[in-house]
Write a structure and sequence with these properties.
Elements (H helix, E strand, L loop, with lengths): L17 H20 L3 H22 L1 H26 L10 H7 L2 H11 L5 H20 L2 H23 L4 H29 L2 H10 L21 H15 L7 H14 L3 H14 L5 H22 L5 H8 L9 H18 L22 H30 L7 H14 L10 H42 L2
Helix pairs in contact: 1-2, 1-3, 2-3, 2-4, 3-4, 3-8, 3-9, 4-7, 5-7, 6-7, 6-16, 7-18, 8-10, 8-11, 8-18, 10-11, 10-12, 10-17, 10-18, 11-13, 12-17, 15-16, 16-18, 17-18
Length: 482
C-alpha cells in the first residue's frame, strides 16, 4: 500500500547557508574575470575547467538545485571565455576550456553509481540502454582511436545522458528543477540573444579572431553583418539549438522579461541561419500545442501573437532582412542550395559504408567526406562511432524514452512538462542534419527528456496518492456509516 505522506521536498535552493553556494559561484566568476583582465590565459586554460568541476561538485553535494543552474551557465558561457582567453594569450586548439561544462555534468556519475540498481525497476531502462551503447563505443575507441580523442568524445556523448539520468531519478525534486530551469533559460535567452544581435552588428574582435583561426568559411566572414551568429557558444548549430529550447520555454513562462527576451532571442535565432534548428522549432511547437489543455492552448496562441508583433518588425528591417530572407528562400529553392546538395552528396557517398559498420570505429572517430563536415549528420556519426552493436542499445533507449513520454497523459496542465517533451523531440528531429544527441545539442535533448520523465513520474505518484487517499476515505465512510 502506498504511503499517505506527501513526497519529501528537497531543500530550498536557498538552503541553510546559501552564502556558501553563491560565494563559490561568484568567486569562480570573479577569478575567471580577473584572470582574463590580467592576461593570465595560460593559467586559466587549466584553472577554469578545474575550478568549474570543483564548484560543480560542491553544489552537487550541498545545493543540487543550484548545481543544475550552474551547469547550464557554464555550458552557455565557456566557449565565450575560451575566445577571450585565446584573443589575449594566443590561439590554442583544442582548448581545455571547452571541457568545463562536460566535466561539471560528469559529476552526475555519482548518481548513476548510487541509483543504478533501483533505477531499473523505476523506468530508467531507456537511459541505461543508451549509456551502455556509449560505453561500448568508448571501449572500441580506446582500441581503434587515439585515447585522448576517445576520452573527449566520451564526455560529449555520455555527460548529457548522465545529467538526464540524474534529473530523472531525483523526480521528487521536479517542481524545484522546473522553477530553476525556467528562470535560467529566460535569462539565458535574453543574455545570449542580445549578445548574438550585438555580435552580428559589430563583430567583436575576439569573435573575429576565433573565426579567422578556425577557418570555417561556412560561419561567414569576420566582419560586421557577415557572420552567422553563434553568440557566446562554439558555433551556430549548438547556439541555435539552445535558443530553440529557450524560445519554446518562453511560451510556458510568466516572467515579465519574456517578451524582450523573445525579441532578442528570435532575432539572433534567425541570424544564426541554422535551418535544422528552425525546423526543430516547428516540430516543437506542433508537439507542444496539442499536448496542452484548451485553456493553455489559447494562452499559448495569444503569447505567439504577441511574440510575432515584437519580432516581425525587427526581421523585416535592415540590416537583418536581407540575410534572413535569403536563407528562408532556400526552403523553396533546393537546387541552388549548396548546403543541402552537399549533404545529399555526402549521404550518397558514405551512407552505405556507415550502415556496414558492425563493431564500429569507436568514439573519437571523425566522419570523413568531401561534402560533409564531422558534425553534419548525427546518423552517420552514430553508426561510425558505435557500430550496430552500440547503435542498437543507444537508439533503442532513445526510442523507448520517447515512447514512454508520449504515451503518458498525466501532467497536461503543466505547460513546462509539455515544453520539455516538445524540446527533446524537436532536437532529436535534427539528427539527420547535425549531432543532435551529443555535445551541447545533446545536453539540450537529453536533459529536457530527463526533466519530462521526472515530471511524468512525479505526476504518476501524485495521482496514485490521490487515488489511495480517496480509497481510504471511502472505506472510512463505510465503517462509520450507521
Amino acid at each position: 500500500m502506498l504511503s499517505q505522506t506527501a513526497p519529501p521536498q528537497p531543500r530550498s535552493p536557498i538552503g541553510l547557508h546559501p552564502t556558501l553556494a553563491w560565494t563559490a559561484m561568484l568567486g569562480f566568476a570573479l577569478f575567471t574575470t580577473a584572470g582574463i583582465l590580467a592576461h593570465a590565459g595560460g593559467l586559466l586554460r587549466l584553472a577554469y575547467p578545474a575550478g568549474a568541476f570543483l564548484v560543480g561538485l560542491f553544489l552537487f553535494v550541498r545545493y543540487p538545485i543550484l548545481y543544475l543552474g550552474f551547469t547550464w551557465w557554464v555550458a552557455f558561457l565557456s566557449p565565450f571565455v575560451r575566445r577571450l582567453i585565446d584573443f589575449q594569450s594566443g590561439w590554442v586548439d583544442p582548448s581545455p576550456v571547452l571541457l568545463a561544462p562536460f566535466l561539471v555534468m560528469m559529476v552526475s556519475t555519482l548518481t548513476v553509481i548510487k541509483k543504478l540498481p533501483r533505477s531499473l525497476q523505476t523506468g530508467g531502462l531507456p537511459l541505461l540502454l543508451s549509456i551502455t551503447g556509449v560505453v561500448y563505443g568508448f571501449l572500441v575507441g580506446l582500441i581503434n582511436q587515439e585515447p585522448a580523442a576517445a576520452i573527449v568524445a566520451l564526455l560529449n556523448w555520455l555527460a548529457p545522458i548522465l545529467l538526464a539520468f540524474h534529473l530523472f531519478v531525483h523526480w521528487r525534486n521536479y517542481p524545484h528543477y522546473r522553477q530553476n530551469i525556467q528562470r535560467v533559460f529566460v535569462w539565458g535567452v535574453l543574455v545570449t540573444g542580445s549578445y548574438g544581435v550585438l555580435q552580428y552588428l559589430i563583430a567583436p574582435e575576439w569573435d573575429r579572431f576565433w573565426l579567422v583561426n578556425t577557418g570555417l568559411l561556412a560561419f561567414g566572414t569576420p566582419e560586421p553583418m557577415a557572420m552567422r551568429v553563434f553568440s557566446t557558444m562554439n558555433s551556430p548549430g549548438p547556439f541555435a539549438t539552445v535558443m530553440m529550447a529557450g524560445l519554446l520555454l518562453l511560451f510556458s513562462s510568466q516572467s515579465v522579461i519574456r517578451f524582450p527576451a523573445g525579441a532578442a532571442g528570435y532575432l539572433s535565432f534567425l541570424l544564426s541561419i541554422v535551418r535544422s534548428a528552425w525546423l526543430g522549432w516547428v516540430v516543437g511547437v506542433m508537439t507542444f500545442i496539442p499536448s496542452l489543455k484548451p485553456k493553455l492552448q489559447m494562452r499559448l496562441v495569444v503569447t505567439i501573437m504577441v511574440m510575432a508583433i515584437c519580432v516581425i518588425p525587427l526581421i523585416n528591417m535592415e540590416p537583418f532582412a536581407t540575410t534572413i530572407n535569403a536563407r528562408l528562400q532556400t526552403f523553396t529553392n533546393t537546387e541552388a542550395d549548396v548546403s543541402y546538395n552537399d549533404r545529399l552528396s555526402g549521404y550518397t557517398e558514405i551512407l552505405g559504408e556507415a550502415l556496414s559498420q558492425i563493431p564500429g570505429e569507436g568514439l573519437g572517430y571523425v566522419v570523413r567526406s568531401d561534402s560533409l563536415g564531422a558534425n553534419d549528420s548525427g546518423i552517420l556519426s552514430m553508426f561510425f562511432s558505435l557500430g550496430w552493436f552500440g547503435t542498437l542499445p543507444y537508439l533503442g533507449g532513445i526510442v523507448l524514452m520517447f515512447f514512454s513520454l508520449f504515451q503518458s497523459t498525466v501532467g497536461r496542465s503543466d505547460a513546462f512538462m509539455s515544453a520539455a517533451r516538445a524540446i527533446s523531440l524537436g532536437v532529436f528531429a535534427q539528427i539527420g542534419l547535425g549531432s543532435a544527441t551529443a555535445a551541447l545539442s545533446g545536453v539540450v535533448m537529453w536533459s529536457f527528456a530527463g526533466l519530462a520523465l521526472a515530471a511524468q513520474r512525479y505526476y504518476d505518484y501524485q495521482q496514485a496518492q490521490a487515488i489511495a487517499a480517496q480509497s481510504i476515505s471511502s472505506q472510512f465512510e463505510r465503517v462509520i456509516k450507521p
